[in-house]
Specification:
The chain is of the alpha/beta class. It folds into 2 domains: 233 residues, Aspartate Aminotransferase, domain 2 (3-Layer(aba) Sandwich); 121 residues, Alpha-Beta Complex (Aspartate Aminotransferase, domain 1). The chain contains 13 helices and 13 strands.
Length: 371
């Protein structure tokens, strides 16, 4: 039993940098020396390398993951008066981008086991105004895509995967991001593949859709000064692309480390009766962006962990339908019981690729003592 206090953060981006310091510094220096700050060869190369990793035809880089959602929806033709179905548990980017297109966001409850959009509840959310659905691969666990896609096809809806937390996660034998009409990724610094600033991307196998997304994200034209439509300015900068190219080479080993740590947690914490551990569906390969445990007395557990130098986080303390900005929709907890329950009890424990065995053991031993 570990007795010596050990500081355990939720993540350690500086340790990640130190592990790749020479390569990252060299990549940054290369961008500076060539002055390729906006797009440039590293952006082109990253788009090619990321699409090759996932096995998709196109990768359209953006300034951030939120823009990626917005660009994708606009390019899919979302307009005022449309309705788009999103899960009730996610970061607000998933829903706010629907509203930004002028469409109405429609929330669907999550599956209580996978914490992703519940296919059994999807049909009831669809109306004659529905144009698409955005399944979120929450915490790094894939949504159950087969029934979602089947329902969407039956109603002639598009499917936009929100894979912001699920780099290299797999649904059955396929990477998430490859099974819908398009998928969006965030490279926010704390993500499994993170830049040193904001960055995002959209992937798709649809040629026309890719061209539309590139055009819209680059002021409405693919050549400088040639604006075919009114677009927006959402470009990945060269520094972030160069950094991401370096980190991309470590993504598989980082993912495997996260999976080993999660397996250790699942085995060691199983004996704690007050903890409801996450479950991995048999068809899923989880990449553990977050390891979320449910506790009846979450705040008490979090407070005691903090006293012992262990960080924790609540992702997310309020389910989307109950945020003040959606008060106009008039939802009650009984409308989305699974999302509401998770928001009240879920606590993210430290889990990151640079985490030491000593730190993981200290988290486990402390929880066993506390609970």
């Amino acid at each position: 039993m570990t007795t010596v206090k050990t500081e355990v953060p939720m993540g350690d981006l500086y340790a990640q940098y130190l592990g790749l310091k020479y390569e990252i510094d060299e990549a940054i220096s290369g961008v500076i020396s060539s002055s390729s700050f906006i797009r440039g060869p590293d952006v082109d190369a990253f788009e090619s390398e990321y699409s090759e990793l996932l096995g998709v035809n196109h990768c359209v880089s953006c300034a951030n993951g939120t823009d990626a959602l917005y660009v994708a929806m606009i390019s899919l033709g979302v307009k005022s008066g449309d309705e788009v179905v999103v899960p009730a548990m996610s970061w607000i980017s998933t829903s706010e981008t629907v509203s930004q297109t002028g469409a109405k966001v429609v929330f669907c409850d999550i599956d209580p086991i996978t914490h992703t959009l519940d296919p059994k509840r999807l049909e009831a959310c669809i109306t004659e105004k529905t144009v698409g659905v955005v399944p979120v691969h929450l915490y790094g666990h894939p949504a159950d895509l087969d029934p979602i896609v089947e329902i969407a096809e039956a109603h002639k809806l598009w499917v936009l995967e929100d894979a912001a937390q699920a780099h290299m996660a797999k649904y059955k034998s396929s990477f998430v991001g490859t099974l819908g009409d398009a998928a969006t990724f965030s490279f926010y610094p704390g993500k499994n593949l993170g830049a040193m600033g904001d960055a995002g991307a959209i992937v798709t196998n649809v040629d026309d859709l890719s061209a539309s997304m590139m055009k819209f994200a680059r002021h409405g034209g693919l050549k400088k000064g040639d604006h075919e439509i009114e677009g927006i300015n959402s470009r990945m900068d060269g520094l972030q692309a160069a950094i991401l190219r370096v980190k991309l080479r470590s993504l598989q080993s980082w993912t495997q480390k996260r999976q080993r740590l999660a397996a250790y947690y699942l085995e060691e914490l199983a004996e704690i009766p007050t903890a409801t551990l996450p479950t991995v569906a048999p068809w899923a390969e989880h990449v553990w962006h977050l390891f979320v445990v449910q506790f009846e007395e979450r705040e008490v557990v979090a407070g005691k962990l903090k006293e012992r130098g262990i960080a924790s986080s609540v992702n997310y303390p309020v389910a989307l339908p109950f945020l003040p900005c959606y008060k106009r929709l008039g939802h009650a907890p009984s409308d989305f019981p699974a999302a509401y329950h998770l928001s009240q009890h879920g606590l993210s424990l430290p889990l990151f690729a640079e985490m030491s065995d000593k730190q993981a053991e200290y988290v486990v031993d402390t929880l066993k003592t506390l609970c």
